[in-house]
Fold this sequence. Notes:
The protein has 309 residues and is an alpha+beta fold. The chain is 18% helix and 29% strand. A seven-stranded antiparallel β-sheet has the order 6-5-9-12-13-8-7, covered by helices on one side. Strands 4-14-15 form a three-stranded antiparallel β-sheet, with no helix packed on it. A two-stranded antiparallel sheet has the order 1-2. A hairpin with a 2-residue loop joins strand 7 and strand 8 (147-154). The longest helix is centred in the middle third of the chain and has 11 residues, at 103-113. Mean pLDDT is 85; it is low at 1-38.
Amino acid sequence: MLRVRHGQTVRQTYRLGQRQTHVLTHNPRKQGPGRSSSHLPKGFSHAASKLPPFNAAPSFSLTGPPNPGWKYGEGYEASAGADEWAKGEEGGWKSIDTGSIPPRELYPLMISGIIPRPVAFVSSLSVSGVHNLAPFSYFSMVSHNPPLISISFLHPRHKEKDTSENIRATKGFTVNIISEPFVTNANFTSIDAPEDVDEWIGSGLTKEPSTIVSPPRVKESAYSMECELFHLHDLFPPGASQMSGTLILGHVRVIHVRNSILNERGTVDADKLRPVARLGGLTYGRLGDSFELPRVSWKKEKDAVQGLK
């Protein structure tokens, strides 16, 4: 692999049969206002120029809940923003039968409503040894005992995603949490490149050897998991014989977490991790204000709850 110095931009060529693919590698830490943006996707710089600059200051803060005086059985009318929220009911609801519209129309509706979604930044390895790196937002924690995570993959045009195919064949993979400073690098890896192209090179990110599985983890990630395939389930639309996706459960064997993001309790500080999430369309989100709500105990509160009858 070619070594790239800070700030250097290098054009590398991969021969794919009779086709050539050019990938620009760069060091994103040297990219700033006024610097060359020839490595960015077409239209990216123009679109970004119309928006306020990114605020690099951490935005996470802890506040009180929106309705601190709420009592059992009460509505939400005293909550912050309740009046505006209630007015939304005046417009009614639109009920959509998911079996009556094509998947291409259902997709934007679901990804814009099921938000925010955490992003699994998955590193995998093909049988032939080709590295693959890609982000997926159909991702969640399933269990801590055993420690399991889930990722699902859609297979457009009936071609299985490279990551899904790799995990099916080689069983091992890493899941890396994306933080604000390198989200642009991670976004590059969503490119629809041929299966024998290594997305790592264009991303500018660093392979860090794993301890149990073969695929490397992302060194820039402050929270990475080495996983082994626990269960795989192929998805078929009702009545269809053609596979449309694959759900994978991964057994988390090792967690790598930066000491700098751990608090005194040994857990992760969200404001130091600075994770990003997917919203609808091309939009990503970051953490903003948060609040805590106590877990309600039936043993302690059963008299008050039963008194509402």
